Amino acid sequence: MSAIEVDRLSHVYSGAEGGVPALQDISLSVEPGKFVVIVGPSGCGKTSLLMMLAGLRHQSSGTILCDGRPITAPDPSRVGVVFQEASLFPWLTSLDNTEFPLALRGTPRAERRRRAEEMLNLVGLKGFGARYPHELSGGMKQRVSIARGLVQDPPVLLMDEPFAALDEQTRMTMGHELLRIWSKTRKTVVFITHSLTEAVYLADEVLVMSPRPGRIIDRITIDLPRPRTYEMMATDTFGKLRERIWQQIRKPE
Amino acid sequence: MSQFQLVSTRLTLFAAFLAAWAILPKVGILDPRLLPPLGDVLAMLGKQIVRAQVQEAIGVTALEVVVAFLIAVPLGTVIGVAAAESDYFGQIFKPMLFYVFSVPKSIFLPMFILTFGIGFPQKVAYAAFSTIFIVIMSASAAVESVKADHVLVARSCGATRSQILTRIYVPSMMPVLLETLRISMIFNFTGVMIAEMYASRTGIGHLISNWGENYQMPELFSGIVLLSAVAISFNEAVRLLEGRVSRWRT
Asked: Chain A interface, mutation test: which of B157, B166, B247, most A Cβ atoms within 10 Å?
């Protein structure tokens, strides 16, 4: 069974002059444990698609199955979400931020402490639990976000341009760290990015979306060996894959 | 500048101010008939504060301030939150609230006297009226300080509506709401004082106004010192609390 199964999903925004088609006939299926990256031009609806996968927005038509059951509302036990920067609650410490989803469910205090600390260790933030977000660097904040996304142990992790606000160096490190965490937890990841290098470096498969209305116009299997290394970025294969995605994106309609 | 230097400079300046107040009228550089020396004022304060008439006036004023505060702050907060949360309500009422906010409230005081007569209800009503607009504006601003991103994250974590209210809205709004509390007390206190000084039979404002008219300067200044001390204490207490809950706002 697929971890995620999207079937003929379309979305139309209601506007002043009738409906604006945003997503058109999207079907995709992600095998458990796979790392799928979605790229596409700005405004192609990739964030909307992710919001729908997370149950945060409703599509006009089509279905989304996760673990065989439809997604109609947020369900953090099946889908964890990591957003762009600044999504931590500034009034909570890293530890409290991490255990936030558990606190909502009324998990006993000791249990959620234990889980949250485990997650902070996993993302490499052992000993930073008492820090507030403003005391953390951009990369560390995103590590806490990842810990929060994983704390309920969902099979699927959705990531919406999580490293877009980071500087190039931190971004590379975080990509590498994410792969390490992913290989340890074997989650199914759907990752959105603008960076083609990041896409090729992280993905098992890259889905390319067209400008609005967003459709999936290409699916590219990235058969680079794992674990991925920085050196691979300089290889021919890497360059060709990156080039192929670029051709798709800049292709005029 | 280090914290120590900063504090000691402030204390030195304050001490210099008190010393000047104590000495300058005494040696005749300032006219003691207009500004009695600090020592005389404090002695007068000690004398006044034990008088039954003054104590009763303090009680009346305090009650007026508290009741007006308890009306204006919750009511204003509810209206302000509603104006910010509901597009419909906000679009209809916000411009009106802005207009009324800009008008000095004291020009309505005669209306309050005609409606309520001179007494406790008139003082409370006027003070609440002069406070509620700032509460409404600040409460709206507090709601707008809640980030849409945070609400989205909470929803993705499975938060219910009431959990979003208690775990996102309340902590996000708390620093601004405490600031509102502080500022509304300033407006509220001012409202009560103006109402008492304008027309009243009791209250500290009434005493101060009488002392001024009768040229009883030590009495007048003892009242000023007392009220200033109370106002500053309240303000600082809330500010301390503000500092505690908004430690994350840096």
From this structure: B157
